[in-house]
Amino acid sequence: MLLTLDHLTVRLPGTARPVLDDVTLRVAAGEVVGLVGESGSGKSTTAKAALGLLPGTATASGTVRVDDADVLALTGEELRRHRARTVAMIHQDPRAALNPVRRIGDFLRERGADRDRAAQLLGAVGLSDPERRLRQRPHELSGGMLQRVVIAGALAARPRLLLADEATSALDVTTQAEILALLRTLRAEQGAGLLFITHDLHLAAAYCDRVYVMYAGRIVEERTAQAFFAAPAHPYTRGLLDCSPTLGDTSRPLLPIPGRPPSLGDAFPGCPFASRCPDAEPACETWRPEAAELPDGGVAACRRAPAAVPTATERNLS
Amino acid sequence: MAVRIARRLAGFLATLLAASFVIFAAVYAAPGDPAVFLAGGRDKLTPERLATVRAQYHLDEPLVVQYGRWLGDCLHFDLGRSFKYGDQVADLITARLGTTLELVAYATVLFVVLGVGAGILAAVRQSTWVDSAVVGGTTLAASVPSFVAAIALVSLFGVQLGWFPVTGSGRGFAGTLHHLTLPALSLALGALALISRVTRQAMAEAAASDHVEAARASGVPEREIVRRHVLRNALGPIITMCGLVMAGMLAGTVVVETAFGISGIGSLLVGAINTHDFPVAQAVLLLMVAGYIAVTTLVDLLHPLLDPRVKQEARTA
Amino acid sequence: MTALTLAPVRVPDRRPVGVTVAAAVLLLVVLAALLAPWLAPYAPDAIDLSASLAGTSGDHLLGTDSSGQDLLSRVLHGARSSLVAPVLLLAVAALLGVTLGVLAAWRGGWTDALVSRLTDVMYAFPGLLFTVLIIAVFGTGTTTSVLALGLAYTPTVAKYTRSLALAESRKPYVDAYRIQGMGGARICALHLVPNLGRAVVGYLVVLFGEALMSLATLSYLGFGAQPPSSDWGLMVQEGQAAVVQGALLPALVPGTAIALVVVSFNVVGVWAADRLGRQA
């Protein structure tokens, strides 16, 4: 297994509930895994945990492993090498991720590419005239071009695991499609695993092999992409599907999820989604969510999930 | 960009004109006859001397004409004649300006190296005892007037330890360096707090950028991050503040040159005032103010060149 | 005054031990100044050439200067003028600065433009040079120094007051008074200025240390207090010649006194101004 998060709980001082609460997640080599949730659900923190980039004030329990390295125990030079070689992150806003006063070439060289490789990488991500791009600065390129540069930077060190944090959310739709296709191709060429983080469940289900849905720092459902559309098990997942429009489906009414996404100031004695859940029963308010295996192999953390079977906690997907 | 430069230069000229007019017209604020005042008071005053002064300053003409002629004379380095020395004021100044500029340059090197260095240290070790020590130490240094610092430095390094000479400006490069070390240090000490604080603040802001976090997430070595991302992006405010402080140091030499008995334009000004030699005082003040305005304008003009985004606009505009 | 005036030092928020110590130092200095005639073992101008440049001893706790004057007695007496003069100069600056600032904010238009141009011209003089120009014209002495420095600090106070007054003049109570038919001058004098008082005083408190330093510097240059005054800056100047001869006390005693008071005042002043600012 490439990336293994086991019962990862991360707390920040001054918050009522953990940022990540008992998160268990796997990404196998060569696999594309989606991680979906509203903003503040803990998606980005999950990615940062894989990089060993949790805030200094955070306390974490559980394990984060990439290959065989215990990420949370890495320090100093080992941690730096882990970030430089094993895992690479593609950020949401490419313009913020690049230093405005430095050249594109500097950005790539900093990530371990020499001049030739840098030019070759820019060509591989579909930028024209790579030699000239190397001398340009971020403000001379469009957002889509910059995201290609960021992807080139992420691929520079041939990482085993790619983390794409809302990597295409800031781009227009056609560029988004190009970047998504590019990411999939390049990832396949390098045989790397990809954790694809997005707020868009439809996109994740269409793009990924397997998808995790997060809510209030917890994984509420984990299914293969096909299973999501066929039979979403968790009411939150159903809510997500119901509240976003899909092409060619104009007759279906859009149903927003009532209430607001929970903040870090909200603590929950029971299921965190209970107050917004259409199917909630009084018992849900006190039920500690537990992952239960679904008949088709997925996992859902809902008291009322159909045919719920408690899972072995050490369930191994590989 | 061209418009910006033109506007800035116009502002520079306007300020310079206004300030020089204040320096010029100050004569009329003095109690009594301006001619007597310019001649250095009633002692030893001869009718010939009074006539010379009247002619030199065109005192019989309207104020604006007088100012215009005075300004014209100043531009030709005809700054009048010193009452005390009997020399041309321009000669007095040229003989001393070099030493003052050396002192300012030396002090600038010291406060840039020490101040920016301390600021970087405080920023990198933010919220540790190093940070507190830098902030506390430089704040303390800023609370000590430069003449007290001068005396303390002379007492310790000059008299007690005998490492540095206590007065004069020395000959040759090594001699000058040796003589000007303590003066430059007393001049620089007060600026350390300001410079280190600006450096620390600018670096803290630059360090909060997303691209710094992104670089860290990519495993870029911390030393590279500090140098190429944090410090590089913080340079704008740091360089601006260093330029402003350097410009202000011309005025600081007044005290430090007096304290160390250095013969520069600062001590010339003090001597001129204590001997009522107004033409000299006027000329030195004009020079210092003009230098200050010129350097601050220059800093303002150069500042945007640090940012490639602005430079790009400049090229395309 | 220049744009380089040190920004108020941001000392960390917790009420630090330093503030207490600094406040205690200031209290002692003020007491010493008040009680100088009773505390000082000698008259400040008692010359005793036989005891010239004596070191510390039972007779002279802090030694003597080249005229044999007791340094402790001089420093104690000097505390009076050294502490009172900055207060006076800040009073001058406050009077002029608040008037100009409120006028500029209230009248706006060309009044505001004129005040801001005047301010700009004065900011073109770095450091103490504006003060030095005034002294060059009107001659040296304590009164000239205090007035000249007061004038030099005016733009800083005016600028600060203007921004405060501008915000204050937009508050609804000002309109209420205007609707009642009250004149602008009365509203300013009776309501606006008193409401700014706290913040302005806080600002002046922060300036005090610098004002004291500037005045001491002028005295040191021979522009301020004249002999036989025991002004600290002047004492440093008088004691400087002895330093080269190896007698450090005559210059270091008053020099340390200046540094001690300025440091203490900066520590306490910033802390106090912070609180005043927060309550205002």
TrEMBL record, chain A:
- Stretches assigned to the ABC transporter domain: 3-241
- InterPro entries per UniProt: AAA+_ATPase (IPR003593), ABC_Ni/Peptide_Import (IPR050388), ABC_transporter-like_ATP-bd (IPR003439), ABC_transporter-like_CS (IPR017871), Oligopep_ABC_C (IPR013563), P-loop_NTPase (IPR027417)
Membrane topology term reads: Peripheral membrane protein
State the coiled-coil residue ranges. Answer: none
Database matches in SUPFAM superfamilies: P-loop containing nucleoside triphosphate hydrolases
Say which family it is in.
Belongs to the ABC transporter superfamily.
Q: What is this protein called?
A: ABC transporter ATP-binding protein
Provenance organism? Streptomyces viridiviolaceus
Q: What lineage is on file?
A: Bacteria, Bacillati, Actinomycetota, Actinomycetes, Kitasatosporales
UniProtKB/TrEMBL annotation, chain B:
Keywords assigned by UniProt, alphabetized: Cell membrane, Membrane, Signal, Transmembrane, Transmembrane helix, Transport
Task: Look up and give the membrane topology term.
Answer: Multi-pass membrane protein
Q: Which residues cross the membrane?
A: 103-124, 133-157, 177-195, 234-260, 280-302
Protein name per the record: ABC transporter permease
Q: Which residues form the signal peptide?
A: 1-25
Q: Which residues form the ABC transmembrane type-1 domain?
A: 97-299
**Major place of localization?**
membrane
Identify the taxonomic lineage of the organism of origin.
Answer: Bacteria, Bacillati, Actinomycetota, Actinomycetes, Kitasatosporales
Fetch the Pfam families from UniProt: BPD_transp_1, BPD_transp_1_N
Subcellular localization, as worded in the UniProt entry: Cell membrane
Query: Which Gene3D superfamilies does the UniProt entry name for this protein?
Result: MetI-like (1.10.3720.10)
- So which domain of life are we looking at? Bacteria
Q: Which family does it belong to?
A: Belongs to the binding-protein-dependent transport system permease family.
UniProtKB/TrEMBL annotation, chain C:
Domain ABC transmembrane type-1 span(s) in chain numbering:
79-269
Membrane topology per the entry is:
Multi-pass membrane protein
Q: Where in the cell is it found?
A: Cell membrane
Q: Which residues cross the membrane?
A: 20-40, 83-106, 126-153, 200-223, 243-273
Where does this protein chiefly localize?
membrane
Keyword field: Cell membrane, Membrane, Transmembrane, Transmembrane helix, Transport
PROSITE patterns assigned to the protein according to its UniProt record, in alphabetical order: ABC_TM1
User: What PANTHER family does this protein's entry cite?
Assistant: OLIGOPEPTIDE TRANSPORT SYSTEM PERMEASE PROTEIN APPC (PTHR43386), PEPTIDE ABC TRANSPORTER PERMEASE PROTEIN (PTHR43386:SF25)
Family according to the record: Belongs to the binding-protein-dependent transport system permease family.
Protein name per its UniProtKB record:
ABC transporter permease
The organism named in the record is: Streptomyces viridiviolaceus
Classification of source organism: Bacteria, Bacillati, Actinomycetota, Actinomycetes, Kitasatosporales
